[in-house]
Fold:
Amino acid sequence: MLKDKVAMIYGAGGAVGSAVARAFAIEGANLFLTGRSLAPVELVAKDVVSAGGSAEAAEVDALDEQAVDEHLRSVIGRAGRVDISFNAIGIPSTNVLYVPLTELDVEHFSLPITTLVTPYFVTARLAARHMVPNGSGVIMTVTTLHSRQGFPLAGGYGPAQAAKEALTRELSAELAPHGIRVVGLRPHAMPESRAIQDGFETRSKSSEMTWEQFQGQLASRTHTQRLMTLAETANMAAFMASDKASGMTGTTVNLSMGSLDDSGGWRHASRRLPSSPRPTHRPEHGGTPAPRSQQRWVALKVVTDDARSGTRLSIGRLTRAAPAGRVVPRRRPAAELWNVRPSRGSIGEGELPSRSSMSQAISQHRVAGGRGCQGEACP
Ligand SMILES: NC(=O)c1ccc[n+]([C@@H]2O[C@H](COP(=O)([O-])OP(=O)(O)OC[C@H]3O[C@@H](n4cnc5c(N)ncnc54)[C@H](OP(=O)(O)O)[C@@H]3O)[C@@H](O)[C@H]2O)c1
Structure:
């Protein structure tokens, strides 16, 4: 799709930048990879070259306009033109996230705006100046769900992501008449990336959540019940950079896997359909009370009517001998028992010694695609 295209990638040593570099290389692009530190960018370039692709690495701070300009000119001097400019710059969450807005100082609030939006403007503007005379080119970036959804403790990160998407639209409005497309990608969290792992590290200091539970919680909001991979995002980037996406400009593609719908709404718990069965703790659903010693922990999918908690998994005790194929959970607080539809094989059922080990098992099921099961009870 990208045969002989000349592609610049800024922030190419990072998770997204390196994945995009590999996907572009597979599609035949000639890569010019840059980053603030040379070593990680060189590693990516070596990887690409050893896989038969074409890549060069350079140290360029994308906040330094002169450095970006000089590097771009040297690339164009050798390659003749630039076809694609991809900005994949990211910043560590330290001092940016997890501080309440009421306690955040102006400097830290402004940090993501300065360090994420300004390099996007700088790299896009300089690339556009070289693309306009050729009458073609694609300018790209990547944002997060924060651009469209309010999350607590996100500081200036959300405003920065929203600004990048606004800039994508504005650049397109001015550049599309010159044959230049400007597009963005808005993926969900990708757990392979350092940024998401760092986010978990910070969260885990104030909660007992495991890495699997953290991913499971994020994944529970997607239609697919799993998280995006870097390769999936990068493959979409390759398509969007290619002429096959010639009809696409001035937009940011929603790769949230359904967790952020196109109306901008956050996906809450799936609402119970009128025909869905009520919670099955009532006597008419059969079964006789089992002695406590014979009760088992079971995994239940609990859909709550609390809009903030969304779909989540919970644990219940099997307190009755259920008819075949049906699990009868012990009564939980009414708000949580809004719609309980456990099923063997779809979530998993097993006999585990404790509530916490079951909790871990459930998270693993969810991360594995939500269709796993646990223990001898699996079909
Ligand atoms: N990871 C995800 O799950 C995810 C999901 C949705 C969107 N995104 C977005 O994707 C972008 C990249 O995220 P990521 O996970 O790939 O982050 P990352 O792994 O931390 O990579 C970011 C890269 O940008 C480089 N960089 C930072 N400032 C730079 C500058 N001024 N000039 C040149 N390079 C600079 C960093 O270099 P140093 O390491 O030397 O600082 C690093 O190599 C971010 O905008 C992020 O919001 C990420």
Residues 283-367 form one domain.
